[in-house]
Amino acid sequence: DAKTTQPPSMDCAEGRAANLPCNHSTISGNEYVYWYRQIHSQGPQYIIHGLKNNETNEMASLIITEDRKSSTLILPHATLRDTAVYYCIVRVNDYKLSFGAGTTVTVRA
Amino acid sequence: GAVVSQHPSWVICKSGTSVKIECRSLDFQATTMFWYRQFPKQSLMLMATSNEGSKATYEQGVEKDKFLINHASLTLSTLTVTSAHPEDSSFYICSAQLAGGYEQYFGPGTRLTVT
Q1: In angstroms, how far apart are the furthest CA atoms of chain A?
Q2: DSSP assigned state of A6
Q3: Do A109 and A15 contact (CB within 8 A), yes or no?
Q4: Contacts of A42 in chain B (CB under 8 A)
Q5: What is the distance of C-alpha A12 from the center of its chain?
Q6: Please, what's the b/e burial string for B87-106 (b: 16 or more CB within 10 A of its CB; e: otherwise)?
Q7: Which single residue of A34, A42, A103, B90 has CA 20 to 30 Å from B40?
Q8: Is B40's Cβ below 8 Å from some Cβ in A?
Q9: Are strands A9-13 and A103-108 parallel, antiparallel or unpaired?
């Protein structure tokens, strides 16, 4: 699987949008971009995934650049409960997930 | 939907004993389940992949005779840590992949402490 690069940490204000970047410059054509998050001492939670089109669900939006070398996860209205480690993973479907260090997001009141 | 449970949520055992951790998909069938380990302040490390009815595939460096995995049904996988030692103390997390799907759904994790 291709490697990803994420900032180690970021802060955001409660109620504002949180934009989480991820670089995956070596992504292959058949690899999807997945986002998971892990709240302290819990199992990871699936957020969203996409191949090349932008995706949106009830939790977040995923914006993938046209060359697919980077993406941004957007939490539209961050709450304190969104404080977590966010993992960006590229993966061929039906294959194992490989977790990197992720971005520790702290939402502040 | 897509709920995965683990039991127990935490366990303390003495060095040299064995501990079994269960992972269940509650509302879906999972042909594939995964076991991860997470040490404090580190990311998740995949230990093994198990497919229902067949032997598990272990990642490099994971001792298959120490970490026994059984995936006897489409809703249950178990991880047994045999002859546990203090260095096996960790957070063990399972995930289950929907039959015919690609998303993995994770359990809440099991905190193992070996004294």
Answers
A1: 40
A2: -
A3: no
A4: 108-109
A5: 15
A6: ebbbbbbbbbbbeeeebbbb
A7: A34
A8: no
A9: parallel
Suggest the residue from B45, B106, B110, B111 to mutate for an interface test with chain A (most A CBs closer than 10 A): B106
Q: What contacts B101, CB < 8 A, 6 or more positions away?
A: none
CA distance B102 to A29: 17
Task: Give the whole-angstrom CA distance, residue A77 versus residue A92.
Answer: 30
Q: How many CB atoms lie within 10 A of CB B84?
A: 22
Q: pLDDT tens for residues B18-37?
A: 999 999 999 988 889 999 99
Tell me the C-alpha to C-alpha distance, in Å, between residue B57 and each of A8, B50, B96.
31, 6, 15
